[in-house]
Amino acid sequence: MKVRYFEDTDTALVEIGSTPACETKELTPDLYVDLDADGRVVSITIEHASKQGDPTDFTFERIPAASPR
Q: Considering only Cβ atoms within 10 Å of each terminal Cβ, which end of the chain, N or C, has fewer?
């Protein structure tokens, strides 16, 4: 997974997979999801990203799976 922020267009791109996108769905005027041929999410594009949040304040947290009891 890769997250890129393009300052010149104020666009954030979250790349989830490496398969080619076959379809783009607009969820809102600022949010797009690219799907592969099997309907799996390949990437998410956020337009006007700085209006949605601070793209320079990015954190990642991995939540481990729960241990079986």
A: C
